Amino acid sequence: MTTLLYDGSFNGLLTAIFIAFEYKMYDCSIDTKERYQATMFDSPETVMTDKLKAQRVWEGLCKKVSNHARREFYYAFLSGLPGIEDTLLAYVRYAFQNNSTIEKNFANSVVNMVSQTAHSVHREKHRMEAFVRFIRLQDDLYCAFISPDFNVLPLVASHFQDRYADQHWLIYDRDRDYGIHHDPQTRLVSDVIIEKSTADTSLSTTVHEEEVAYQTLWRSYFDHVNIQERRNIKLHLRHVPKRYWADLTEKTAGV
Amino acid sequence: MQWDPIQEKLEILAEAARYDVSCSSSGSKRANKSNGLGNSTGVGICHSYTEDGRCVSLLKILLTNHCIYDCAYCISRRSNDIPRAGFTVDEVVSLTINFYRRNYIEGLFLSSGIFKDADLTMERLVRVAKRLRTAERFNGYIHLKTIPGCSEELTHEAALYADRLSVNIELPTETSLKTLAPEKSHVDIMKPMAFVSENIRALASDKKIIKSTPNFAPAGQSTQMVVGASPENDLQVMSIADSLYKNYQLKRVYYSGYVPISNDNRLPVLGTPVPVIRENRLYQADWLTRFYQFSVKELVDPKNPNLDLDIDPKLSWALRNLDQFPVDVNTAPYEMILRVPGIGLNSAKKIVAARNFQKLGWEHLRKIGVAFNRAKHFVICQSSAMPKEVDARKLRAHILTQSKFGTSFSSQTSLFQ
Lengths: 255, 417
Ligand code: SF4
Hints:
heterodimer, A: alpha/beta, 3-stranded parallel beta sheet, 47% helix, B: alpha/beta, 6-stranded parallel beta sheet, two-stranded antiparallel ribbon, 15 helices, 39% helix
């Protein structure tokens, strides 16, 4: 069996799908170069990302499914789950083979898988829109660190761009080691990478003079809206799973 | 800023506001024009959840807990010996802006004790909202409490700045109100509600003619009823909610299980458990009437005036109406599929879409996300024989023993499917 290896980008994946169609590789698999592990029965082949090829697949998909379904396809890709590429390849195959649109056939495992994965990614996006906590630095940069389950920064950028249009902000995904940065002058959001050594050490020393006070106020607000007689930790944990606590101001003890 | 006094006030005034359960920040679209601060997209975000499992979406505080009234069920009643505090307009504005900029909140929910008279109190609330919208160019969510008895001019002005207005009906019946809050009357409460509702309606019909009409409480109105402080049954509570939805176009009716806060003998004694299960059932029933096309009459009636505490109202309805089951998922209309215990809104939609491609069997239903162990008693499909258990009592017992539901309750989401 052939495994097509791509660079992890969305265009890379679409290029690999293009190749699979072009060379009629009915029995192939797609994986990222990073994750791929060679096995005995398998021959890897590296795919060069090609925008034009990617575009052809994307436009082809446009003709077969709705915008909504294409968005689900992209969301599912961002899940980065092992094996998602094969599911997405199967999805494109299924869509191209049929004249009528297949996106609503939730009884089909591939369609169902894409739709449910997209749903999980969407939930994580929504979570991050809620759970980002900005820390105001001395120079008025509002800075936040997150560790989301999936790669959702591309999905949350426009939300924060609209909301904090007059604000200088940075949201950094620790696990994937990149962030998005908004400049209120140009109103543009761009990707950034912070050098490891400067990331955590420099922050605590340069917070804005009011930062600690507002964090304290927020924590005491959080504690005092709680009604002890109605305590329901199970429900609390379901809504705010422990893995997010480290970055939530109200769930940490403060400085 | 002097931080310590602010913190003390915040603690007192958050604690006083926490019995108001409304938390919604949805239903309003306010774009961030002019590169100012904030927006409302209509979706609403819960930024956190307290340990009682309730959503934290808005900075929910009282402007002051000084109050000239003496409502027995209220922690801020004038006869209660508690610390009192009051924020200045500036303080509320900076708290809101600074919390918002750090992405702690969606906006502000401001209410107040009535500190001199209704107008003066309302005027102060409006001033906060106005400052946020104008001087601070704030486009986040603002929910203001309308103070019963305040002038129509003030209510009108409030609606120009706020996304949502609410006035709490407090207790389900006038009789209970007379007993527990003798200084209040439903007439006073309903007046501002009617005023806002008429204006929203008038505006909606203007909108058909004029393109740009002013923003007038774009997220509509809501209200809250305390349950468990007075003797009304669920039939009474739900009938009132129903008429509020129909006659005043309310967006939400909230139910607040009474938390005992006083040893007044007109009220449940201190230490009485908060009726969280009942509250949860009311929310579920409310949900069924708003999204699942159930009518109040189907869920409670003079013979069964209270919702079943052991099982959710949808299951309860199904067991009382076994003659309507089993439902064939491959042919039944959407409305009937919605009524199957274990099938939620999403699954119902998916079923109706997927059955155009092939006949559905058990495996398909599972994949689609149906709560299978529950639904299997009520449906037939491609791969099924008729469900065996048809005796309602046995079926109920059977479902109860295998149910994993029932221990965690939420006032904001429906836990049944
Ligand atoms: S008027 Fe409002 S704040 Fe005052 S006692 Fe009654 S319920 Fe409480």
